[in-house]
Each structure stands twice: as structure tokens, then as C-alpha cells.
Amino acid sequence: MGDGSITPRFGNMKALLGIVAGAGASYGLYKLISGGSFKRNKKSAATQSPGVRNRETIDVTLQPGSLLARVSGLDVVCPRPVDVASADIIHQSPGNIDPQHLKMLLSCLQTSNNPPDRCRILLTLGNCAAFTVNQNLIREFEGIHTIAGFLSDPVAEVRVQTLNALNNLCMNIQNQEHIKIYVPQVLELIEMSPVNSDLQLAALRLLTNLSVTDKHQHLLKESITLLLSLLVVTIEELQVQTLKVLVNLSSNPDMMDDIVQAPAPASVVLLFDARTAPAVLLRLLTFAGNLKDWRPSAQVADELRRKQDCLFRVMLDESSQLHSRLVQLLSHPDGEIQSQVARILT
């Protein structure tokens, strides 16, 4: 949708800015209409953790403590008032955005040829999707499939914002029925993206929400090895997110056969160490506890022992190093970790 069709509909630029400002994107849409582009700042190498690639981030100002600033880690564009008269409109709640404005955003998304503009629109839609009423409206407008179409966008930042928007939409159970068909594409993004990238993190967040209930967990049964491999090559933030998915899956007894026979890197067991970050170690112990609660028959156990490098042999077999490592963790300074270890060993 170009300038000529938007401006007459809403009268003037102030009105248009007011429409989407509550969704945290007035400045971004102003740039979209005016043909401008938003700036990106590259983080300096000095501020990056070792082994983490430099990432480009949208130059925005967050509203500290706001709801949207906490939802799925999405950045929120701070509205910039055009004048005093429009200030009240600009600070509307994203939950009060009108249906026709959501339609307009989806239409703009489909017609935009500019990657920064697509990012800004997806960011706005993602912020709107933090509210149930908008989650339902976007689904009814077939917006889920419109948004998901950008999972294959050639620009990485567009794919990240697409995943973030789908993640918020996924908090709605009805929306999950529409989003589940994109699981293979999301898994491919994880596998093909650079290690420790924003793309991997955003994709894992989406899979976490999708795997909270048992209904769609079977869609991930072929991805166990991929998830286990991520544990040994990624930074803490991605390890935590990966373990959230694994804990969800291992909480379902129907998934256990697929989990224990999946090929697993032997180095997974090395993470059960006092030097591992507590946030990672606690979830590892929860995952291990779920595995320990599984009781295979003698015949099944014998069959699994013949599967070289499967998770059963790495973590559950008598030959595994896990038991000795758990004993060492009984002296961990974190009391919660001690309790988790004691529960597994008893």
C-alpha cells in the first residue's frame, strides 16, 4: 500500500501515526510512509562475548518495564510525539488498536519491497500480538500465513522479526493449529543459521511455546539430536532456551522412546559440572530427572545398549559417566542444584 492510498484514508500524517503508535511503532511507520529507513548500529567487537558473532540491532528506545518490552524479548519502539495534540493518541495501548489498522499493516507487509520497512511492520505486528484480541484478529484476517511467509525472506533480520511475531501469536492455542505447519521450516532455520545467532534464539523461543502442551510435541521427535547438539556448541542463552524445549518434550511419556534412542553427542554429559552456569545446570538436571523417571523393560534397555551413541547410552546406561558427575554436584554451592541432584540419585 503506497502513500497515495494511505494518506487520504486517514486524513493526515498525525492520524496515521496515532493509529499504530500504541503498538510501539509510530516512528517506524512514519519512516515507512515517508520512504525513510531506520538505522542500525553494529555492536562493537569489544562488547561481544567470545565466539558470538556481531549482531545488528534496530536503533530503538525501549519503554522500561512496559509489558511489550518483556514479551518474548521483543524490542519496543518508543513513540515520538509529533505535537501535543497527538500525544494522547500516540500513547494508546496496543490492545486497543482497531481491526482495520491491523489489516492495513498486513497489507503494507505484503507490498513492502524494503527490508527495514518489513522489519518495522513485523515488529509492530509482533507487539500487537502480545494481546489476545489482536491474536484472534490476526488469525481471522489470515495474517498468520502472511507473516509466516517471511520465514524465507533473504534478510536475516526480517526472519528474526517474523519468528518473534509468530512466537507471540503462538501463545494463543487456536493459533498454534495454524503455526504448527511451519515447524519443519523453523527447524531448518535452526540447523542452517549461524551458531549463537538471533535466528536460532528466536526459533527456539517459538518451539518452546509450541511444545508447552503435548498436542504438537510429536512434530519435534526428529529434532532431538539437533537440540542435543545445540547444547554443546552454544552460549548460555541458547542453552537455556534449548533445554526449555527438551524439558517440555521429556515431560511427555509418549515422547520418551524417541528421546532416549536419538543419537547424542557424548560431550552432553560433560555439562553436568560445577562450572556450568546455574541456569543451564538446573534445567539439565530437570531434563535428566525426567529421563531417570522413565523405566524401560529389560528387553528395551538391551536393545538401546546396542544403539551406539544414543542418548540412553550417554546418560542412562550403567556405563554412563552421569552418575559419578551427579555425586560430585552434591557439594554444589547452590542449594537448589543440590536438591535436584539428590532427587535424581534417590
TrEMBL record:
Keywords attached to this entry: Membrane, Mitochondrion, Mitochondrion outer membrane, Transmembrane, Transmembrane helix
Coiled coil: none
Residue ranges occupied by any Armadillo repeat-containing domain in the UniProt entry: 98-315
An example Gene Ontology CC term for this record: mitochondrial outer membrane
Pfam families referenced in this protein's UniProt entry, alphabetically: Arm_2
Top-level taxon in the UniProt lineage: Eukaryota
Residue ranges of the TM segments: 15-33
Annotated membrane topology: Single-pass membrane protein
Keyword match Mitochondrion: yes
Protein name in the entry: Armadillo repeat-containing domain-containing protein
Organism expressing this protein natively: Etheostoma spectabile
Lineage, highest ranks first: Eukaryota, Metazoa, Chordata, Craniata, Vertebrata
